[in-house]
Specification:
Layout: H1 3-9, H2 24-35, E1 67-70, H3 83-86, E2 87-91, E3 97-101, H4 107-116, E4 121-125, E5 130-132, H5 154-160, H6 167-170, E6 172-176, E7 179-182, E8 192-199, E9 205-214, E10 225-227, H7 232-235
Parallel strand pairs: 1-9, 4-8
Antiparallel strand pairs: 2-3, 3-7, 5-10, 6-7, 8-9
Length: 237
């Protein structure tokens, strides 16, 4: 039997275990640690309650903030440059698509960029005093051709207000004066996102953007220009 075996054989398995003794200083430190409440574990990168939430159901059917309105409306300074400088399209990791518009030109190029990002869109740029006439397509929800709410019953009003009836107003949201974000989750298969841009026609309105969803299977006809509505009411929102 070697030395280690003799030491192990000498241990009494029935012997009572005794806690190792601690000095008074160690005991005081342990008591202090136990008595101290844990600090908050919220990571510094988590947004607080003051974080900006996306705009929902802006006036009409698009984007709307001071200086811009949507689906309503939005405004952009017109500058010269290459097509790539006129707009930018970026697909985000969460599936949303960020669109920045610097110039009102080359709608076909913007449509192609959006298609490469997974968004089927019809884009139109008009002058400040013009807009597309209604009836270009069949709307996928109520945003394109909303019925009158006059004389609606309570049940009809509840049906009217269902979020699914206003997806066109949620599909795009502005984040600054020339940029908005498209959320494909509000689109259904084979629907077309219709974007109608024009410069604002009232002080404080940069540009106007009408955002609508064309029903699956409904072709979008070319824009027939008519006199644009005033943006005065939108600018006041």
């Amino acid at each position: 039997m070697n030395k280690i075996d003799r030491m192990v054989s000498a241990i009494d398995p029935a012997a009572e275990y005794a806690e190792p003794s601690m000095g008074q200083g160690v005991q005081d430190l342990l008591a202090e640690i136990v008595a101290t409440p844990p600090a908050s574990r919220q990571p510094s990168w988590l947004p607080g309650r003051s974080a900006v939430s996306p705009l929902r159901r802006p006036v009409l059917a698009g984007l709307a903030v001071a200086g811009i309105a949507v689906a309503a409306l939005v405004a952009v300074p017109l500058v010269s440059g290459t097509p790539s400088a006129a707009y930018a399209v970026v697909k985000n990791a969460d599936g949303t698509v960020q669109v920045t518009v610097k110039e009102f030109r080359d709608p076909d190029g913007l449509e192609a960029k959006l298609k490469s990002a997974g968004i089927v869109a019809d884009v139109t740029f008009t002058e400040a005093d013009k807009q597309c006439a209604r009836g270009r397509f069949v709307g996928a929800d109520l945003a394109y051709d909303p019925p009158s709410t006059e004389n609606m019953t309570e049940q009809q009003r509840k049906e009217f207000d269902k979020p699914d009836n206003w997806r066109s107003r949620d599909v795009a949201a502005p984040i600054n004066k020339d940029t908005f974000v498209i959320s494909p989750r509000f689109m259904r298969p084979e629907e077309t996102l219709v974007l109608e841009f024009r410069p604002g026609n009232y002080a404080g309105m940069n540009w106007a953007l009408g955002t609508y969803l064309a029903k699956a299977g409904s072709p979008v006809a070319p824009c027939q220009l008519v006199k644009a509505n005033s943006d005065e009411k939108l600018a006041g929102n």
